[in-house]
Amino acid sequence: MQISERKEGQILVIIVSGRLDHAAAESFQEYALRRINEGARSILVDFGGTTFIASMGIRALIVPTRSFQKRGRLALIGLSPQLRQLFEVVGLFKVFQVYSTAAEASADGVWP
Question: Nearest 5°: CA angle at 30, between 28 and 31?
Fold first, then answer.
């Protein structure tokens, strides 16, 4: 797994490439929590280059989301058809707002 980031206005976009598997989940979770602790309140996770997400990878997404406690927002972009199916089956569309692109997410207007 590779992690990089960019800014889209006030939104921090965390770009995940490769596999968010059991071995990578802790690194991702620590990365996201570090950004939140540094003051990020609007985070988009870009899965456009992600080929696989394991159950621990899903947990690594939920933990930072809960750490916001209504002080911020974490949403997702770039889900492949396979990842969309996974999120649908697991019921994660009830947990995360999902957008096609960062531009679509930015236009939503509900970011802190």
Answer: 65
pTM of the model: 0.94
Q: To 10 degrees, the CA torsion angle through 18, 51, 100, 66?
A: -70
10, two tokens: 């006030």
Say if residue 83's pLDDT is above 80. Answer: yes
Nearest CA to 47 out of 24, 13, 77 is that of 77
Locate 63 and state its tokens.
């933990």
Task: Kindly report the number of other CB atoms within 10 A of residue 110's CB atom.
Answer: 9
Do the Cβ atoms of 17 and 47 come closer than 8 Å?
no
Q: How far is CA 67 from CA 21, 52, 85, 103, in A?
A: 21, 24, 26, 25
